[in-house]
Amino acid sequence: MKKLLAGQAFTIGLVCVICLAYWFPEHGLEGGSLGAEYTTLAGVALIFFLQGLTLSSASLRKGFTAWRLHLFVLFFGFVFLPLAAWFVVERGWVPERVAPGLIFLAILPTTISTSVIYSAESKGDASAATFCAVLSNLLAIFVVPAWAAYLIFPGLAEHAPGDGDTAFLTHFLWRLFWLIAFPLFVGLFSQRFLHRFVAGKEGWVRKTCFACVLFIAYAGFCKGVDQRGDSFGGDFFQEVFFWTFAFVLFSNLAAVMALRFSRLSWPLVITGFFAATQKSLAVGLPMAYLLFGQGNLDILFPLIVCHPVQLLLGAALCSRLRSASSRSS
To answer: What tens digit of pLDDT does each residue of 266-302 get?
Structure first.
């Protein structure tokens, strides 16, 4: 219950920063009092440094052997769901304003914390969940930009920063290395020196990451509000909610059907379900900032709507899966 409430606190925080951005957008703009053009970049780097610093090496080694699970999760999250989202967009079923955000949601990696917590509470394999989540997020550094280049940018009216594709690619790869890959590996390397400092403080580290994510979200929405004003009407939000709920329902049902025919053990089935269906807000917001700049309200809304939905659904399923695990043992 405490973990669930902590997740809801983060969701409430997101609602608060959206309201603050609507009422006080001037502070989060370039040249504003918060220096968002610099502090958001520092926040992205800090998020990935702390993620590398707190990864459990022992759990990674233990979970490495479940290779069939990892292949399933990677294929489901990085191939099946993106292609499914692209298919419904290409068929013209998804409104044009919602399509980029829906595809971006589909190409994101699994969560690092929630999928592991839910797997452990449902008597799944927490070590395998840890390795799977880390592998998914490491590959996302390369997979998400690649999918975005092929599935999202051709449909956008405006490109991300840069004059032309080559300039954009150079601009983004520079940011990718220095703000994501480099801090992550520095965090991993620093474990040997800072292990005693962070031991027992994982909760505070997680809260720091969430605070950085909230600040990045605030800056992004400030830019979006300043640029677009009231251009998002009620129909847009209805469309976002409908297609986000449809995506969550489809991904969960598809994962259940696929795992029924797998030869994985029951603990790995539980782990596979949560790892395959959860989408990371903590990684998605910084990625969206780097890929699309600050004015990306339409890109972010499906992800923000998905976060509390998958959180509540996962929590509701935990007790049922735990009971099923007890009966099968």
So the answer is: 889 999 999 999 998 878 888 887 888 765 667 888 9
Helix (H) or strand (E) segment spanning residue 62: helix 57-63
Q: Is the pTM of this model over 0.85?
A: no
Please state, in angstroms and as integers, the Cα–Cα distance from residue 309 to each residue in 104, 136, 150, 183, 277, following that order: 17, 21, 28, 30, 11
Measured from the Cβ of residue 130, the count of other Cβ atoms closer than 10 Å reads 25
* Mean pLDDT for the stretch of residues 212-237: 70
Torsional sign, CA 51, 52, 53, 56: positive
Q: How far apart are CA 104 and CA 284, in angstroms?
A: 8
What is the architecture of the domain spanning 2-328?
A: Up-down Bundle (1.20)
Q: How far apart are CA 277 and CA 115, in angstroms?
A: 9
- Tell the burial category of 295 from Cβ atoms under 10 Å away from its Cβ (0-12, 13-18, 19+): middle
Per domain, the residue ranges of the chain are 2-328
Radius of gyration of the chain (CA): 19
Q: How many alpha carbons lie under 13 Å from residue 51 in its C-beta half-sphere?
A: 29
CA-based angle 218:222:225, to the nearest 5? 135
d(CA 327, CA 89): 42
